[in-house]
Design goal:
It is built from nine helices and two strands; from the N terminus they run αααααααββαα. The chain is an all-alpha fold. The protein folds into two domains: 52 residues; 124 residues, no CATH class.
């Protein structure tokens, strides 16, 4: 049987098995504490990529501020609309009661979205003398006209589908065109020309 090593001999053997040059700091660190090399490596990587990361974060921050600002502005306008927009929305609600038919309901949401999207232009137009009623009726006429000329309401070329709301939409267009004439937005000749033009375009579509 092998004899057991004495304690002093065992310690001496352990301390003399491997020696490292003290000048080689990385090797020494790795020998005495292997995880430390990972820390040093990570620190080096951070030092290299920190400026790039900072630029990326700065760009993201600027982008978020821009998005937040626009979103906040839109939200603020919806919650606290200018007096001019309140007046226009009031006329719009009256119009829903007056033109309570399938044709108006067909374009109702589109008109409201247009009012919200073009709030700045509406405020400017009203400041120059356009009435809120003129604004709403112009939106109704333009939206109705766009759909009538699109061909989506036709049963075949030149003919509106009698089963849809196309014919009612044409009547609505005529009504608001006459109202715009009464308000002074159009002369009688201009109003008649608008009604003739919409019918000519309907004949070409489908």
């Amino acid at each position: 049987m092998k004899k057991k090593l004495k304690l002093n001999e065992l310690l001496n053997k352990l301390t003399t098995q491997k020696r490292y040059n003290g000048n080689n700091i990385l090797l020494s660190v790795w020998y005495f504490n292997p995880p430390m090399i990972w820390v040093l490596g990570a620190s080096a990587l951070i030092a290299i990529f920190a400026p790039i990361l900072a630029l990326v974060l700065l760009f993201i921050g600027i982008l978020l501020v821009a998005i937040y600002t626009d979103g906040f502005t839109i939200l603020h306008r919806k919650i606290f609309p200018p007096q001019e927009i309140k007046a226009v929305l009031g006329v719009f609600e009256e119009s829903k009661l007056r033109f309570n038919n399938e044709a108006f309901r067909f374009i109702e949401n589109i008109i409201k979205k247009k009012i919200e999207a073009q709030a700045d232009k509406i405020v400017l137009a009203i400041s120059k003398g356009t009435s809120p009623r003129e604004v709403v009726y112009a939106f109704i006429a333009n939206t109705a006209g766009d759909y009538l000329e699109s061909g989506h309401l036709h049963i075949y070329r030149g003919e509106l589908n009698p089963m849809g709301c196309g014919r009612e939409l044409l009547k609505l267009f005529d009504t608001v065109t006459n109202e715009l004439q009464k308000m002074g937005s159009w002369t009688k000749e201009q109003a008649e020309e608008e009604k003739k033009s919409i019918r000519d375009n309907i004949k070409q579509m489908g």
